[in-house]
Amino acid sequence: MNATLARGLAGGLLLLALWEAVVRLAQVPPWILPPPSGIVATTWSARGALLDAGAMTLFEATAGYAIGAALGLLLAMLLALTTPVRKLVLPMIVLINSVPVAAYAPLALLWFGTGALSKVVMVAFIVGFTVFLNALDGLLRVDPAAVSLFRSFGAGPLGLLWRLRLPSALPAILVGLRVSTVRSMIVAIVTEMLGSQKGLGWTIFEAVLQIDFLRVWAAILAASLISLSFFATVSAIERRLVFWR
């Protein structure tokens, strides 16, 4: 275990201990803020349902993540090659991305139904924007001297893209992929809360309607653990690929 991970675990355990102590000493009602021990106990007792719900949410998040990342990277490469089209299309893309994700969710549910497809589409939509913007920024932030050098050796636009721009943009692309892990889970859960009958988002919404706040916190805990695992996996891949940073 490295020092950073050890410090993170120690800080997390200290925070949980303080949370438990404050809630019990101040006698805070569980519907306002339950103790961590109660959340863990509820999570364990409802582990079967939470595992099923978490598996559905993880599927929606990862499927949309893969589709969105691929489309975002492809669009960034296309616009990096065509300056006139980039100047025309980029403002419209930024404008669409400036609208909160919750505003698009009802449309996705209307067009694609309340099943998994609408969640996958929403996740792909948001992840695609994030990866696209990071990738395009990295592809365009290339040393002009390096571009001139490659052109002097006869490299065309595709050669520049493959041999210079993509390797130079790799750190920015991976940052976008890492950030998108958390966004994919958030979007999947929010869309589930607006229209679904499966997943952690639906579990949270149903528990709120039933005034079962311990189950709300249990679902939040499950979502947090899945998000952390997803984030850690992509971060490990990033450290292996961008080993010089």
Structure description:
By secondary structure, the protein is an all-alpha fold. The chain has one domain (35-241): MetI-like (MetI-like fold), CATH 1.10.3720.10. It is 84% helix and 0% strand. The chain has ten helices and no strands. It has helices spanning 3-25, 36-45, 47-81, 83-97, 101-112, 116-140, 144-152, 157-194, 200-209, 213-241. α5 (101-112) packs across α8 (157-194). The radius of gyration is 22 Å and the shape is globular. The relative contact order is 0.13.
Question: Could you provide a short overview of the structure?
Answer:
The chain is mainly alpha-helical. It contains ten helices and no strands. The radius of gyration is 22 Å and the shape is globular.
Characteristic key phrases:
mainly alpha, MetI-like fold
